[in-house]
Design a protein that fits this description.
This is Carnitine O-acetyltransferase, mitochondrial. It is found in: Mitochondrion inner membrane; Peroxisome. With about 600 residues, the protein is of the alpha+beta class. It is built from 21 helices and 21 strands. The protein is globular and about 75 Å long.
Length: about 600
């Protein structure tokens, strides 16, 4: 049976600090409104003196005196008996109520670095060893012996890791749900090969099966799927649909008891492993396969889904509704580092039974899969991707340049965008709030008065090198201060969101003025998850005219995955964004290095 979310005190080390974590605070109204006023200044032609800005400030001031205190009091009262007032709304608003396809629009991916070994180049060996390590990580979660995460020695919330395994998003009209199944009763994974689904038991007598047995079983599955004709109506493609359409087709599938059992097995499986027939070579090919694959050899509703291609290329795709990327980053980073240490198993049995999950396809489902394939192909072909990687400048050198690595790449992105478009536009950076119980993210608005001054000064042909450096330093300082406040639960967007949720009747003009929606219309959506074990990490843009900029700041190199809609109204191209990232990186490195050298003389 599925189990629901529980906040009961856990017994193992993994959850030792949960009861001690602070509750998510409700910021002071005056503090948020002051920050909000400052955050929108860069979008007015004349900044703080612009007549339109001053007009809207009067609207904000009116809110501060009228409806604001009433809503603030309601929010404080609402938060009193909750350890995380935001989570009551956020999962549904940001994820489960989201109706566009989860892939490619809300799921995120990691692509694993290549391993120059037999395991790294052989699909079945890689899949078996990867699965074995995933099972070891899963057992550490189940036994609660996995060490809890900390940031600078401070414990952070581990609650979301409960949703990592034996879990699935369930499509429903208007708003999906999420079910977590008892891992002790569901000791199997699901393998997808050539659009067919197989159930693979990974425990026997409460013990994990050996890696040799996993090799044997996976080899049998691959042989079996290769021997059968192509699946004419791949059920996996239905999970790529608009969520309301998928919910309708899901109910059609559930009418059949055979289908119902197969769906239940997929949903309750520990995780999904996909054996792909493709042979990605370039980093863009590998990232595309990680991002969405062919749409059919996947089950996009699972939070943990691995894939291995014929040439050993591997990675991970995560459904986002109950968990952000940091827990799965940790898992994948550990798995790949462990794979690099493994030797190929020597004794491999060649006989194993397969357990294929059956689906009976009605005419309605057949038509639905045909339509889903067409829409999926049109959707992914409407998106462009370019992977920008810059070697010789990473965390180590950025620190020598006396800059925060994260703030550095944020200013690099701002400079590249300004060089390309001559403008700044609303930019989202994900700030983790996991220091609080149930914390997920807050938005940090990366465009500030200081970042605007930096990019405009840097591009000013008459500005001196000293002036450029000073503007850069000021922008970096502002960014570090701002994202730190956001991570401490003192951002702008989540607080205003909470207040808006409690409005009775007509909303105040603060929420309906065009600048309110514009300033959180994320033309640039950015987030950092860094690992030396990955050569790919990314997701899609969040608005039609926007950019998805997933980045890694590793020890000696930088990575930005650029995604954009082709033929967008602003004419943005992924290749050109990557080009300007390179130009900006070269300039920043040259100027800041010269400053460092000069300071040593």
């Amino acid at each position: 049976m599925p189990v629901r979310y529980s906040s009961a005190r856990a017994k193992g080390a993994l959850f030792n600090h949960q009861d001690d974590l602070p509750s998510l605070p409700v910021p002071e109204l005056a503090e948020t409104l002051t920050k909000y006023k400052k955050s929108i200044q860069p979008y007015y032609k004349n900044g703080a003196s612009d007549p339109e800005y001053l007009r809207y400030c009067s609207v904000i001031d009116d809110f501060a005196k009228t409806q604001g205190p009433y809503l603030q009091q309601k929010l404080q009262q609402f938060a009193k008996d909750k350890r995380n007032w935001l989570s009551y709304w956020w999962d549904n608003y940001a994820y489960l109520g989201y109706r566009d396809p989860v892939s490619p629009f809300s799921s995120y991916f990691f692509h694993h670095r290549e391993l120059n070994s037999l395991i790294g180049k052989n699909q079945i060996l890689k899949a078996a060893c990867l699965s074995k390590k995933a099972l070891e990580f899963m057992e550490a979660v189940e036994s609660e012996t996995l060490e809890p995460e900390t940031i600078k020695g401070q414990p952070i919330c581990m609650e979301s890791i409960k949703w990592m395994f034996n879990n699935s998003r369930i499509p429903e009209p208007k708003q999906d749900t999420n079910l977590r199944y008892d891992p002790k009763e569901n000791r199997f994974m699901v393998v997808i090969s050539r659009n067919r689904f197989y159930k693979l038991e990974h425990h026997r007598n409460n013990k994990q099966v050996s890696v040799e047995e996993l090799i044997s079983k996976l080899d049998a599955i691959k042989t079996h799927s290769d021997s059968l004709p192509e699946v004419k109506s791949p059920i996996g493609i239905l999970t790529s649909s608009n969520r309301d359409i998928w919910a309708e087709n899901y109910q059609e599938l559930m009418k059949n008891p055979i289908n119902r059992q197969s769906l239940r097995d997929i949903q309750s499986a520990s995780f999904v492993l996909c054996l792909d027939d493709d042979l990605p070579v370039t980093i863009e090919e590998k990232s595309r396969n990680a991002w969405h694959g062919n749409g059919s050899n996947r089950w996009f509703d699972k939070p943990v889904q691995f894939f291995v291609s014929k040439n050993g290329s591997s990675g991970f795709l995560g459904e986002h509704s109950k968990m952000d990327g940091t827990p799965t980053l940790r898992m994948n980073d550990w798995i790949v580092s462990e794979l690099a240490k493994m030797s190929a198993p020597k004794h491999i049995s060649t006989t194993a039974e397969v357990d294929e999950l059956r689906f009976e396809v009605s005419p309605k489902i057949q038509a639905a899969t045909d339509k889903a394939i067409k829409i999926f192909n049109e959707t992914v072909n409407s998106l462009d991707i370019k992977v920008w990687q810059y070697h010789g400048l990473g965390k180590s050198q950025i620190k020598l340049l006396k800059a925060s690595p994260d703030a550095f790449i944020q200013m690099l992105i701002q400079l590249a965008y300004y060089k390309y478009t001559g403008q700044v536009r609303p930019t989202y950076e994900s700030a983790s709030t996991r220091k609080y119980f149930g914390g997920r993210t807050e938005a940090w608005r990366s465009v500030t008065n200081e970042s605007l001054e930096f990019v405009s000064t840097w591009e000013d042909a008459f500005a001196s090198k000293e002036e450029k450096i000073a503007a850069f330093r000021n922008a970096i300082s502002s960014h570090v201060h701002g994202i730190s406040a956001a991570s401490n639960g003192h951002g702008v967007d989540r607080h205003l969101f909470g207040l808006s949720q409690l409005c009775d009747g007509e909303k105040h003009a603060i929420f309906t003025d065009p600048i309110f929606s514009y300033s959180s219309y994320w033309y640039l959506s950015t987030s950092q998850l860094s690992s030396e074990q990955f050569n790919g990490y990314g997701w899609s843009p969040v608005v039609p005219e926007g950019l998805g900029l997933a980045y890694m700041v590793n020890k000696e190199w930088l990575h930005v995955n650029v995604t954009v809609f082709k033929n967008n109204q602003m004419g943005l191209e992924a290749d050109k964004i990557a080009y300007y990232l390179g130009v900006a990186a070269n300039e920043l490195k040259e100027v800041l290095t010269s400053e460092t050298i000069k300071s040593k003389l």
